[in-house]
Automatic annotation (TrEMBL), chain A:
Coiled coil feature spans: none
Gene Ontology annotations of biological process type: transmembrane transport
Naturally occurring in which organism (per UniProt): Microbispora catharanthi
Compartments, record wording: Cell membrane
Chief location bin: membrane
The keyword Membrane is annotated on this UniProt entry: yes
GO cellular component, one term: plasma membrane
Domain ABC transmembrane type-1: 75-264
Protein family (similarity comment): Belongs to the binding-protein-dependent transport system permease family.
PANTHER family: ABC TRANSPORTER PERMEASE PROTEIN MG189-RELATED, ABC TRANSPORTER PERMEASE PROTEIN MG189-RELATED-RELATED
Protein's recorded name: ABC transporter permease subunit
From TrEMBL, chain B:
Membrane-traversing stretches: 58-81, 119-140, 152-172, 192-211, 254-275, 315-339
Family assignment from sequence similarity: Belongs to the binding-protein-dependent transport system permease family.
GO annotation, cellular component aspect: plasma membrane
Chief place where the protein resides: membrane
Subcellular location: Cell membrane
GO BP annotations listed: transmembrane transport
Protein name, entry field: ABC transporter permease subunit
CDD domains with a match to the protein in the record: TM_PBP2
Residue ranges of domain ABC transmembrane type-1 in the record: 115-336
One Pfam assignment: BPD_transp_1
Record region (Disordered): 1-40
Length: 279, 349
């Protein structure tokens, strides 16, 4: 009797499912709602009850979005920005992570500690001097201002250090040394293959963060040469309350990420959970 | 974990692409410890080898540290210097004024208003968010059907950008056509002008933050919970401990480091909230964006910094605000850390 109860308690109780389904509903509904609004016209929003199924106006609304804001340029900019940052962060984090995890050198612990500590400092503390620096370099209004400061980050280095110190067998590196491999050769032929799973996760997280970044691009870019998030915020905060336009823009800006997420969701979740335990 | 790296090492050996020091040993056919030391071959090669081993680590961390120093660490430190000056974007002369910026800041009612709003929105969003995440993780931490589907749905809000979240929720919280008001009206509560009041706007913004981050934190808790041995729960269940009691009595003490980690990260994040109030205000009018509503009812500290730094371009004053914000973060993080640590004492009884 009590044994049966214990097994039942460990498995899904109907109430467990009910709660989870309710939470899943609240998680997904706002996204679904944006699709509904984006596929109707503004008049439909005033109806009681409001429409709960997608309408047939989506592509007409998308056309309006591209007519109203420089969305095509914004999408291109965001792809270039997020793509460059992702490749750079993956490569440079693996490089530094390898050195921190497996190479012995003077100052290693101090440097690693510095990296971890700065992870905890709010980024906004340095935003004014960073902006002044961009003015000095004459990068304001260009994509350099968005890309270059994000080419490396402390989290990436920390993440790769953690992973490589666990997943890369030191004996393998020693065997390579005995075979006469230089450090560079070890990096290309031993470290990079071993780092691939973690680097992929880091890449996905970095791409998402870069794609969704809003505050810094808003500060340094101009309305005529924006990233997707900046263009979207302009679209949605015009003087005319045009919810359909705003939410269609939202759908267009979010679609690339949701696609990536649906395709690679399992790995992304695995990566977040993996990083969390060690963090 | 991946394909055996040793294999790729061997297949790559004949390629002549490597740097000069990377002479492969043609003698060792499979590299199984045959001591074909190429080092012994000549003096310059051994010197090159030593140089490689000593200098490489620095070369490998250098790209990171150079970029990080220029665009990460330098601005952090330089903020302190700028905050001691009357520094403006337009003026060419930036006189040193000591602590005058800080004095002016302390006398500014808008600064304290922003500090209050930051703490209020922070508490309203972080506390329910982490508690809910804990319960969700507890529910997910058992063999369930559609486990992956639940997880993906929970993380979906986190993939959505801040801008998208605020645009969507501003529509949902809209006074006239918002879905939430429509439901409230239908239930007989009447419509609420969410943006107008202090409490209502704080709740609306807290809901946006909660929506975006609860699932993420739940997954982090879940990861930690999965490391707790299952037998403990089975024993507790046989002893008749309820599920909620198990969460409080077993799970929480076992995943304490993770709880502390999320509390700190969430605290730092909620002290920096800016995009939500900025965009929420922009939904009313562009003029109300940087002030966080027409009466500054939801201007956070970060938004105050933005107003001073990037609307009126008072760099010195804004830098002082940035340092005060940092100080507040340190104080609140320390406070929360102590609270979470103390909680443990109660649990062990």
């Amino acid at each position: 009797m009590s044994r049966a109860r214990s097994v039942k308690a460990l498995r899904g109780h109907p109430l467990t499912y009910l709660t989870l389904v309710a939470v899943a509903f609240f998680s997904a509904f706002p996204v679904y709602w944006s699709v509904i609004v984006a596929s109707h016209d503004n008049a439909a929003l005033a109806e009681v009850p409001p429409p709960l199924l997608p309408g047939g106006n989506f592509f007409a609304n998308v056309q309006r979005v591209f007519d109203t804001a420089p969305f095509a340029l914004a999408l291109l900019n965001s792809f270039v920005v997020a793509g460059t940052i992702t490749v750079s962060v993956m490569f440079l984090s693996t490089l530094a992570g390898f050195a921190f995890a497996k190479l012995r050198f003077r100052g290693r612990n101090v440097l690693l500690l510095m990296t971890v500590v700065t992870m905890m400092v709010p980024t906004q503390l340095g935003i004014i001097p960073l902006y002044m620096l961009m003015i000095k370099l004459e990068w304001t209004g260009t994509m350099y201002a968005v890309i270059v400061p994000a080419l490396v980050n402390a989290f990436g280095v920390f993440f790769m250090t953690q992973y490589l110190s666990r997943a890369l067998p030191t004996e393998l590196l020693e065997a390579g040394r005995i075979d006469g491999c230089s450090t560079a050769r070890l990096f290309w032929h031993v470290v990079i293959p071993a780092a691939r799973p973690a680097a992929a996760v880091l890449g996905m997280l970095t791409f998402m963060t870069a794609w969704n970044d809003y505050f810094w691009p808003l500060v340094v870019l101009t309305p005529d040469n924006p990233t997707v998030q900046v263009a979207l915020s302009q679209l949605a905060s015009g003087y005319v309350r045009d919810f359909t336009l705003g939410l269609t823009g939202t759908a267009v800006a979010t679609l690339p990420l949701v696609l990536i997420f649906v395709l690679l969701g399992k790995q992304i979740i695995g990566g977040i959970m993996q990083g969390a335990v060690k963090g | 974990m991946a394909s055996p790296p040793g294999g790729s090492l061997r297949t790559a050996t004949p390629s002549p692409g490597g740097p000069p020091a990377a002479q492969s040993s043609p003698g060792g056919p499979s590299g199984t410890g045959t001591p074909a030391h190429p080092r012994a071959a000549s003096g310059w090669r051994s010197r090159l080898h030593r140089l490689d081993r000593q200098a490489s680590p620095y070369a490998y961390v250098a790209p990171f540290f150079l970029l990080f120093a220029a665009f990460g660490v330098f601005p952090l430190i330089y903020t302190a210097w700028v905050s001691l000056h009357d520094w403006n974007l337009l003026s060419s002369d930036n006189p040193f004024i000591g602590l005058d910026n800080y004095k002016a800041l302390f006398a500014d009612g808008y600064f304290w208003n922003a500090a209050f709003n930051t703490l209020s929105i922070g508490v309203l969003s972080a506390v329910p968010q982490l508690l809910l995440a804990l319960v969700l993780a507890h529910l997910l931490n058992r063999p369930l059907r559609a486990q992956t589907l639940f997880r993906i749905t929970l993380l979906l809000p986190n993939v959505t950008s801040v801008v998208a979240v605020v645009v969507i929720f501003s529509q949902l919280f809209g006074r006239d056509f918002g879905l939430i008001n429509m439901v409230l009206d239908w239930l007989g509560f009447g419509r609420i002008n969410w943006q107008a009041g202090v409490a209502t706007s704080h709740v609306a913004i807290a809901v946006m933050i909660m929506w975006r981050w609860t699932g993420y934190n739940a997954l982090i808790y879940l990861a930690a919970m999965q490391a707790v041995p299952r037998e403990i729960y089975e024993a507790a269940t046989l002893d008749g401990a309820s599920s909620l009691k198990q969460l409080w009595g077993i799970t929480l003490p076992m995943i304490r480091p993770t709880v502390i980690f999320t509390v700190i990260v969430t605290t730092i994040g909620s002290m920096q909230i800016i995009a939500e109030p900025l965009l929420f205000g922009a939904q009313v009018s562009n003029g109300a964006a940087a002030t966080g509503g027409t009466d500054r009812q939801f201007q956070t500290l970060a938004l105050y910094l933005y107003e001073k730094g990037f609307r009126s371009f008072e760099f010195g004053y804004a830098s002082a605000a940035a340092w005060m914000m940092f100080l507040l973060v340190v104080v609140v993080v320390a406070f929360n850390y102590l609270v979470v640590r103390r909680m443990r004492g109660g649990l062990d009884v």
